[in-house]
Write a structure and sequence with these properties.
single chain, 73 residues, alpha/beta, 4-stranded mixed β-sheet, 4 strands
Length: 73
């Protein structure tokens, strides 16, 4: 099945660990479903952080040769 995978993770403490764990999880989903696009969204619930700081995008992550787009929200 070709398609897209989108996974949402809530940031609790460590951004790097949340991304690392999330990339593995979403990458495994993508491998099982043969997805063409993979997106991981990290939701930051910190009310003291502005939306300008919460919104970001990184595309440098890979899982088993598949690019994983990581977004902050």
């Amino acid at each position: 099945m070709d398609g897209n995978i989108i996974e949402l993770k809530i940031l609790y403490s460590n951004l790097d660990k949340t991304i690392s764990d999330g990339v593995i999880q979403v990458g495994e989903y993508a491998a099982q479903s043969q997805a063409e696009e993979v997106h991981l969204i990290i939701f930051n619930r910190d009310v003291n952080m502005s939306w300008q700081d919460k919104i970001w995008h990184q595309n440098q992550y890979q899982y088993d040769g598949l690019s994983v787009e990581v977004w902050g929200a």
